[in-house]
């Protein structure tokens, strides 16, 4: 577990949708020595290329999104309390009584808590009601609006969940915020590092995308810029190891998940079968994943141009879109090992077979 430092940093760095700059800086620092070229699209997605310097080889895109769910400062009340609006999907039950970080446009950070009334004196109806976001607020521990403004906090500043990274008690489960999709980001960084000196038969574009949580936006622009032949989105999926969960194989410790479909994409069947064969050949632990709703960067990548051969590779995750998500270290290792072996196996023959698999 030599890469715990990377996992800690990549989880704890703040970067909600539209505010991914500090995540991109960390990615650039970590990956620069392992790739040949780094550039950005106009939305802010970072694209790092590993080149073969050969003509007419397949171009493979690996995508992981840098952004996390959070909030924006919507208004500041005369009392100094702050009203917020959500960026990405939240379950309102889990927003109150949590810690957050507000980041100003000058880069200063301030702790705040999402206040909630104590239950004393509440009616049963009040205690059981889920608060609307419009009725919630952040408390900075100040006395009035002037104190908030003097701190440099203004409407539009980002609000990020606060959670420190921890290795849990089985020494394999990792607690952190933003595993959706920072564990995918870490997987791409580690893959690039471990393939640094490998001679491949395909060019690789590692795409660290923005604004996935608000509509897969960075995936669209980065795929248009890259124009890949084959693409993989690396993201998280449900971990079905909780009370009342469906009896599905995606669970912490069950390996990397090969996604058959979700609400945004149906995996290219030829590519799915090819990846599964690689996993079997190299004894990489894997399971299947299938969702009827939700989506990943694959949703926009696969419809780029005249279509891209695409699938999603996922890692089981508990409690994502909250402060306290959990992933399994061994699943992360399985993901990295699978990505490495897949990239080593892709060449022109592979690409031609995948293209023809839709017709033969």
Write the layout of secondary structure elements.
Layout: H1 4-12, H2 21-31, E1 37-40, E2 46-50, E3 59-65, E4 70-76, E5 82-87, E6 99-103, E7 109-114, H3 124-128, E8 138-139, H4 145-150, E9 158-161, E10 166-167, E11 173-176, H5 179-194, E12 203-209, H6 217-226, E13 230-238, E14 256-261, H7 269-281, E15 286-290, H8 298-301, E16 309-317, E17 325-328, H9 329-345, H10 348-356
Parallel strand pairs: 3-12, 3-13, 13-16, 14-15
Antiparallel strand pairs: 1-2, 2-12, 4-5, 4-9, 6-7, 6-9, 7-8, 10-11, 11-17, 14-16
Helix pairs in contact: 1-5, 5-9, 7-9
* CATH class assignment of the largest domain: Alpha Beta
Give the biggest sheet: 8 strands, mixed
CATH fold assignment of the largest domain: Aminopeptidase
- Class derived from helix and strand content: alpha+beta
**Contiguous helical run count:** 10
Overall, the morphology is globular
* Proportion of residues in helical segments: 25-40%
What is the ordering of alpha helices and beta strands? HHEEEEEEEHEHEEEHEHEEHEHEEHH
Provide the residue-averaged pLDDT: 95
**Count of β-strands:** 17
Radius of gyration: 21 Å
If you had to describe this structure to a student in words, what would you say it looks like?
The protein has 360 residues and is an alpha+beta fold. The protein has 10 helices and 17 strands. It has an 8-stranded mixed sheet with strand order 1-2-12-3-13-16-14-15, with helices on both faces. A 6-stranded antiparallel sheet has the order 5-4-9-6-7-8, with no helix packed on it. The protein is globular and about 70 Å long.
